[in-house]
Amino acid sequence: MQVPASEIIDIAPEGRQAQKSTKYDFMVVSNRLPVDRFPSDGGDNAAEGWRRSPGGLVTALAPIMTKTDGAWVGWHGAPDEPLEPFSHSGMDLVPVDLSTDDVELYYEGFSNATLWPLYHDVIAPPEFHRTWWDSYRRVNRRFADAVIQHADHGATVWVQDYQLQLVPSMLRQARPDLRIGFFNHIPFPPPEIFAQLPWRQAIIEGLLGADLVGFQRPSDAANFMRSARRFIGASVKQQQIHVKSPDGRISHIARAQAFPISIAVDQISELAERPDIIERARQIRQDLGNPKTILLGVDRLDYTKGIPHRLKAFEELLKEGRLTVEDATLIQVASPSRERVRQYRLLREEIEGTVGHINGSYDTMQNTAVRYLHHSYPIEEMVALYLAADVMLVTALRDGMNLVAKEYVTARTNNTGALVLSEFTGAADQLKQALLMNPHDIDGLKNTIMRAVHLPPNESRRRMKSMRKQILDHDVDHWSAEFLSALAETVVRDDT
Ligand code: G6P
């Protein structure tokens, strides 16, 4: 795959090298490192290097890592390529190697074809395979071992997301001196759905190895506590879960709590005021023929994001003449994601078929209905798109948070524009002044889009101002500081 030059962030690792023997008192652990290995394609374009990893997790955690002397443990995105610890972009990185089999069974299989659909309201049917589970356990053990090797006595370890839910208990067993936090970036399902998982008990026990288990929404934390009670008989009082060791004694108290994640507000605000980015936004509008309204969708190409629902609503609005291609263009950025997983391949075919159908029916020589871009872009281009867009469409069927919604609002420094936001996102809990809707209700979605297109400027300003205030007061530094200070307050019983 050829990677656009703009996505390659560096070619060589930095001079300062993390060592195999270095010990850290703060460690972040996530499936992906903040940078992905970008392998040589063997051809003319033979440069190897590193590019920023996909997803909101990196955006959220990179600022903390550059400010601390900690290390980040994770996979570097290239199978079968063991690497020594190294430093990049001011961060010490400890790579965990995954084989081709691990990628297929642990990452594509158990993480993204079992847990991901199960935790997102079973929008796609989860698959349960014992070989996937075995691999998940083995790979979680490898991540835990990397932490055990590099964590100083009494270190704080912050484990991230659904791919690594067994790591907290593995760490606790081997290293009771550690202070262990876990944060789940995606929803946690209600026990009625979680019940389907054949390994539900092991997952709950894995998470309960942590001193603090963080979730996006209070309802996710409540779902987790209900599952802990139901599936392992844990005693839960308020937000505290009494965790027993195999001999039946209380080993520690784990706390479950919501910490809604956010974005690097300063970075987005600064980019939104840069003259070259403002000029780029003007150019984007001009390239599209200066339509009255630009609607924008920005998502990983994932079935949780409700892209087909959005396209259906837009097509019907064109069909009914409530919108015309002369007046309105939809830009849909769908960044490539998990392309070897069957459901993702099917979704891509469906979306591209629908876009082709809509454009074939409604495009003119001058105007296009949907400008579809199957790429990921650097943040500068994203901010230019946010500035160019009058209406942002976030129609996810289920989403842990949705940072794109927060980025759009932050970029609208002059308080114009409208955010159409699904009720089923974590962001809807905080952005109450968005135009909230149920994406399954296509007529409701169409009406909300039309409302956004015609939103009176004073109403748009009032809504944007209130949403911007919410985000400015709760940026990503606030998120990590809240989590880490709650973690610091937990009691670690170190008998070693
Ligand atoms: C979501 C998940 C992250 C994941 C990201 C990208 O944001 O919460 O854990 O890294 O998607 O997905 P990928 O499978 O490419 O890592």
Written account of the structure:
This protein has 496 residues and is an alpha/beta fold. It folds into 2 domains: 5-261 and 478-495, Rossmann fold, CATH 3.40.50; 265-473, Glycogen Phosphorylase B (Rossmann fold, 3-Layer(aba) Sandwich). The chain has 17 helices and 19 strands. Strands 6-7-5-2-8-9-10-13-12-11 form a 10-stranded mixed sheet, with helices on both faces. The protein has a 6-stranded parallel sheet with strand order 16-15-14-17-18-19, sandwiched between helices. A hairpin with a 2-residue loop joins strand 11 (235-237) and strand 12. Helix 10 (307-319) packs across helix 15 (442-453). 6-O-phosphono-alpha-D-glucopyranose is lined by residues 31-32, 54-57, 161, 185-186, 337-338.
CATH topology of the largest domain: Rossmann fold
Oligomer: single chain
- Count up the domains: 2
N-to-C terminal Cα separation, in Å? 50 Å
Radius of gyration: 23 Å
Shape: globular
Q: Which architecture name of the largest domain does CATH use?
A: 3-Layer(aba) Sandwich
Roughly what is the average pLDDT, rounded to an integer?
92
Q: How many H/I helices?
A: 17
Runs in which pLDDT lies below 50 for 5 or more consecutive residues are 1-13, 42-47
β-strand number: 19
Strands of the widest sheet, in order across it, are 6-7-5-2-8-9-10-13-12-11
Main pleated-sheet profile: 10 strands, mixed
Amount of beta strand:
15-25%
Named once each, the bound ligands are: 6-O-phosphono-alpha-D-glucopyranose
